[in-house]
Amino acid sequence: MNRRIYSLILATEAAVCLIFAAMGSLTHELFPAVVSFPFAQLGSGLRILSLSGQVGNVAAILFYIAFCIAPCAALLIHKRKRDFYKEDILLLVFSALLFVIMYLLINPGLINQDSGSNGGILFAKGVFGVTVYSVIGGYAILRALRLFFFSDTKKLHKYMIGLLVLVNALFVFIIFGPGANNLINSFKALRVGNLGNERLLGMDYVFLVLQFLVDNIPLMLNILIVNRGIALIGELAENRYSVASVSEAENLSIICRVSLVITVLGTIAFNILQLIFSKFLHNINSQVQIPLFSIVFVLAVLLFSRITAENKVLKEDSDSII
């Protein structure tokens, strides 16, 4: 993937997440509509079609059956080209689930949530969407695992790069989605808890931003680590024993080491600054942050980069003996 396009996609994702975070409570209303797409919209359309008359009702029933049975039909088509895999059972589950969920979406009066209130129905649609997409996601993951285990090294390199791209997208979402939303909610809570003292909260706002940075620095650094990891895998795909591969591995090791140092020192510096400016703050949140996930992730990448560098040395020793 072109690095400029890749960076633009991540920046666009960050901007979209910030917009949704700034929208606040509206996001909670949009979430069910987003996760239930296109099933809820299709259900509403089929209901309108069904109520339009006898011909429309028949057409709606036929479309409902065809849509719900589509996963089974896809399985039968693929069955002619390949063997039946265990994970294909999820396609049958998906089809059965669609029959139930689409029927309820076509007939929302059957949804027993808050006596059929709009809020209850909206919540139920969100639950339906999450359930359906969990089956789709589970099937995709299991199929991907099968591809990984039965692919050659060159394809595994491509798959790994694809997964790392998704990992970076996840990091960006966590930082600028829930992370930014928590920051905005902290601003609101600070104002509500200090009514009449709004002019004295400037330093508190600064430290809330600093806390946001400290909380998310590990993820920000992970994005840089993943980018270097993608570059390393690209070099390994070309030649795992090349000088460029070893150079990328060494660079990755340095970034991992620096990231761990920054992660640890960031929390220490934040707590010390809070102590120094405590008399100017209305809200103090000292913390002992141990980002285990980030540390494990960085150590795993560090181990991978070290193994890559050592393989080059072993290869040179082997060649010299021969």
Folded structure, characterized:
It is flat, with a radius of gyration of 26 Å. It is built from ten helices and no strands. The longest helix has 41 residues, at 153-193. α3 (39-50) crosses α4. The relative contact order is 0.08. The chain is mainly alpha-helical.
List the helices and strands and how they pair.
Blueprint: H1 3-23, H2 25-35, H3 39-50, H4 54-79, H5 89-106, H6 118-149, H7 153-193, H8 202-238, H9 243-276, H10 292-321
Question: How is this structure best summarized?
Answer:
With 322 residues, the protein is mostly helical. It is built from ten helices and no strands.
Major β-sheet profile? none
Strand content: under 5%
H/E series, N to C?
HHHHHHHHHH
Distance between the termini: 39 Å
* Shape label: flat
> How many extended strands?
0
What is the radius of gyration computed over CA atoms, rounded to a whole number of angstroms? 26 Å
Q: Percentage of helical residues? A: over 70%
Low-pLDDT regions: none
- Summed up, the helix count is 10
Overall structural class, as computed from helix and strand content, comes to mainly alpha
Mean pLDDT: 80
